[in-house]
Amino acid sequence: MAAPASASADTSSGPASAGAPRAPRNVVFVDGVRTPFGKAGPKGMYAETRADDMIVKVIRELLRRHPELPPERIDEVAVAATTQIGDQGLTIGRNAALLAGLPKSVPGFAIDRMCAGAMTAVTTTAGGIGIGGYDIAFAGGVEHMGNHPMGEGVDPNPRFVSDNLVDSSALVMGSTAENLHDRFPKLTKQRTDAYAALSQQRYEAAAEAGKIAADLAPVATRSGEHGWGLATADEPPRPGTTAESLEGLKTPFRPHGRVTPGNSAGLNDGATGCVVADEHTARELGLPVGMRMVGYSFAGVEPEVMGVGPVPATEKALKRAGLTIDDIGLFEINEAFAVQVLAFLDHFGIAEDDERVNPWGGAIACGHPLASSGVRLMTQLSRHFAEHPEVRYGITTMCVGFGMGGTVIWENPHHDETAGGAK
Amino acid sequence: MSTETDFAALFPDEVVTEARTRLVDVPGLSGKLALVTIDNGHDHTKPSTFGPAGLSALDKALDEAFAAEPAAIAVTGKPFVFAVGADLSGIGQLTERAHAHRIAKTGHDVFRRLTESRIPTFAFVNGAALGGGLELALSCHYRTVADNVSAIAFPECFLGLFPGWGGTQLLPNLIGADQAVSVILENSLNQNKMLKPGKATGMGIFDVELESPDFLEESARWAARVVNGEQTVRRPEIDRGQAWDEAINRARELVASKTHGASPAVDKAVELIDLARNGDLDEGYAAETEALADALMSDELRAGLYAFDLTQKRAKKPAGAPDKSLARDVNKVGVVGAGLMAGQLALLFARRLEVPVVLTDVDQERIDKGVAYVHGEIDKLAEKGRLSADGVNRIKDLVTGSLDKRAFADADFIIEAVFEEMSVKRQVFGELEQHISSEAVLATNTSSLSISEMGAELDHPERVVGFHFFNPVAVLPLLEIVRGERTDDATLATAFAVGKKLKKSCVLVADAPAFVVNRLLTRFLGEVIASVDEGTPFEVADRALEPLGLPMSPMVLLQLVGPAIAQHVNETMHAAYPDRFGLSDNLQRFVEAGKTSVWTTAEAGNQIVDPEVAELWKQGDAPLSEEQVRDRALRALAEEARIMLDEDVVVEAPDLDLCMLLGAGWPFWLGGITPYLDRAGYSESVNGERFLEPGVASVPNS
């Protein structure tokens, strides 16, 4: 039954109208950190480390970096994980808050939108901040793909196949990337390999400049065989990668296909987190403002070509914000697959080596622990903003398994009209 | 190398603690941190210890660490455990002093590498650090500790040893002699008290306490700051003059009051702390090594290790107990009697079993008083911070009183603590049987009456079991569980299950007069009193047992038990065994005069025999020397213990020892009692045989 049309129009009575109509509040990205990302599997550095312990290190590192943030002022701990069982279960946000030693008065919850989990943790808490449900929230994600391989415990409804709802390839992310090559014949393996090599090279340069390590929370890694270690750097990157060195790699998803381990992100373990806040509260507490949220959108696409998701998500977000692609000066796009990044760049007419896109390389180099990646993009974009006052707007965008895309548009608080350089 | 193989073979069953070195990067540290993990490959329920192979493994790991020329070296443990010291089971098997000497020296040599390193060394104490584990930490230049570590201590003196891998030398030089005496002697001899990390850091044992969730990460960062000179580490100035003298004097007094010189290793600890004043590690470690070799080859230590094993293992798996699966659930408890003992029992059952406990007595007034007592004790626990507000509500709600015995209809376990008189107890059980289910257990807290007799006239005598606690109930860990002639396995299994939930150490005993602890104490005390009756001065008789280092002298024990109760037990024992348990007319007069203590404090402040006691005690003219009194009391103990084993009062001699350790607080260096009777020759002299084979609680004859 529909609600009476007059109910929402009448603002003079009822509990919702006790005060004057409220204006949405500005939501800011304060700061973010992450664990180093590891290779999933028994030989990976996190093979004997728990996922919940990883997100705990992130929460504590943020609090350590921001002594001006009283822990009891955190109104929510939103933590994403794609597989929410075992060490990623027990309502991971609440579980992590308690383990991190936050006051018991601080609540938490678990969230899932596959690869866009942490991004959704940010947009959801941002929405809450916007209407005054929270002042400050922790948002992040964790995925230990060694402990929880993709698809662990899933039970797809047989109607997906019987009713031809999706092609069986929709559940295999590598196959959806191959499908994307089919849809856009101009996206050749040569181009994806070149893009992948560029990602590795940009990451290597950023790492050497100390830009990557600055955002990492060290993690003590347990190993019964080797003793304790200390993770302080990403495990997946392959320095010295060239397009030529990627040419001969296997194509596990199709014989003579185009998608290889070299031009895709790997299977990884890692956790990320950030503090988002009402701008007024942030200023009051003296918290830094890394970015200001302009808007966001999620959009669905055919699950068989989930990699194209960032295109409609970005178009939708731009439209809602009243901006165009030309207003965007910096892009952090998740590199689940090189082909998916190229589909986005081609669509918007951006060169594949454009310096505004993933300036420190991307997931092809550093890894993509599913639900945690969204906040890595945001943390890095906030660092780029600080380095580029001439830029006013940037976006973080990613494709999402089972046919979705998500885009968040951010404004640079350091923006200075008079600053030189590119937009 | 063959020598190495031989060394490792000294502890044939060693669970080898491995040490792994990893070179790791630490933010802010230029150069690597060599991180050494101590890990025996088991989970925290089997903590890492050091035997010969473990020491060799650590030595190799340090070779690797030093070879890498790192910026710093740090040692840490597996999750929840840093290291808990020497492998005690291996020590118990050493047969030659030369081997003991080698173990002692190797520990020093390996640990000292960390002390004398030119590269800064750190201990990241992430979990339990006991004995040699704590010495390993002290051997490093700097120490961090996690705020969740629950066990930090030098338990050596408790066992009849001293911290002999550097502890007596390093600790006083780090935190001062007085605090070192507290940790090494006072805590250890005070029921092996542990230090909390905050307290230990305050004392200066650790340089910084860090929170557990990211302890290793933050320890590594702290270490980097120390190496970089960004973090200063303050150490107190040590007073090596008067303060050191005073500490040693305090230590001597402490030891005199606790062991009376009965544990040579404890005396040695004082000597070594005194020696540490020079701060000369060569001299100090050499002395520690020699003394440790002696201590490892001493019967006192072997008895201590035997006693420790009994309290840790045998106490948890009672000999002769029926299969656990036979135990019935206990979801409601009844307590008959509302006096002091009944109140203590009600409180214990409510707190530990967390099921309803109903008190009953002959009138409502007593019941109300009993319940009020329990509720008052619960409030006291809350004041001490040992119960939360919700916990207070919960436990108070569980304890109620009822004059109507029908309140016991759904009780599964009913214990009586009424007047110690057979007819009264039989009447109580008889009346209860009208109201309760046929399977409910009827337990009695009698200290000397026959369980079989108590149940003889019941419809279900198989449900009666003895449940003998020691006063104060909440403190003393022993519970003698008495099987009557007709007690069935299900009842007995239920009694053991309840005892375990009450966190008591249960020993199965037969339905024999006064069971174990009271019987041995009564026999022993009877001989001392008899020697006084015959003419031995109180001063002589009461000092006679001092060389054993018992927790109290015989006359003080008499005072603690209460002369009237002691005399009551004497009568029971005399009736059962008139030729071994005498009755003292003097003691009877003493009781009738309402006296509680032989000793009183004179005006000058010294202890003297109460003149009224001296007046009423009619002594003979055949005084004995201290040695003769001691000999008489110990021969009697040897005889009684053997008879008890012959009568099958307990399964084996170790059960007698366990009872004396936990019920009478007899010391580890005696191993309870039978190891001492064996090594002092009483067993063979009186009974013609030992209680335990050589090597079980003594150095084997090689």
Task: Describe, in plain words, how this protein is organized in 3D.
The complex is a heterodimer of chains A (423) and B (702). Chain A has 423 residues and is of the alpha+beta class. Helix content of chain A is 31%, strand content 18%. Chain A has 13 helices and 12 strands. In chain A, the strands form 2 sheets. In chain A, strands 1, 2, 3, 4, 5, 8, 9, 10, 11 and 12 form a 10-stranded mixed beta sheet that branches. Chain A has a two-stranded antiparallel ribbon with strand order 6-7. The termini of chain A are far apart. Chain A binds chain B through residues 53, 56-57, 60-61, 99-101, 213, 217-220, 222, 224-230, 232-233, and chain B through 19-22, 24-27, 33, 35-37, 39, 41, 76, 79, 211, 213-217, 220-221. Chain A: Pfam families: Thiolase_C, Thiolase_N.
Helix and strand topology:
The complex is a heterodimer of chains A (423) and B (702).
Chain A: H1 5-9, E1 27-34, E2 38-39, H2 51-65, E3 76-80, H3 92-99, E4 108-111, H4 117-130, E5 136-144, H5 159-162, H6 173-183, H7 189-208, E6 219-221, E7 229-231, H8 243-246, E8 268-278, H9 279-285, E9 291-300, H10 310-321, E10 328-333, H11 338-348, H12 363-366, H13 373-387, E11 393-400, E12 404-411
Parallel strand pairs in A: 3-4, 3-5, 10-11
Antiparallel strand pairs in A: 1-8, 1-9, 2-8, 5-8, 6-7, 9-12, 11-12
Helix pairs in contact in A: 2-3
Chain B: H1 2-8, E1 18-24, E2 33-39, H2 52-67, E3 72-77, E4 81-83, H3 88-91, H4 97-115, E5 121-125, E6 128-130, H5 132-139, E7 142-146, E8 152-153, H6 156-159, H7 167-175, H8 177-189, H9 197-203, E9 208-210, H10 215-227, H11 242-258, H12 264-275, H13 281-296, H14 299-314, E10 333-336, H15 340-353, E11 357-360, H16 364-383, H17 389-398, E12 399-401, E13 413-416, H18 422-432, E14 441-444, H19 451-455, E15 464-469, E16 478-483, H20 489-501, E17 505-510, H21 517-533, H22 538-543, H23 554-561, H24 563-576, H25 585-592, E18 599-601, E19 607-609, H26 611-616, H27 626-646, H28 653-663, H29 674-679, H30 682-687
Parallel strand pairs in B: 2-3, 3-5, 4-6, 5-7, 6-8, 7-9, 10-11, 10-13, 11-12, 13-14, 14-15, 16-17
Antiparallel strand pairs in B: 1-2, 15-16, 18-19
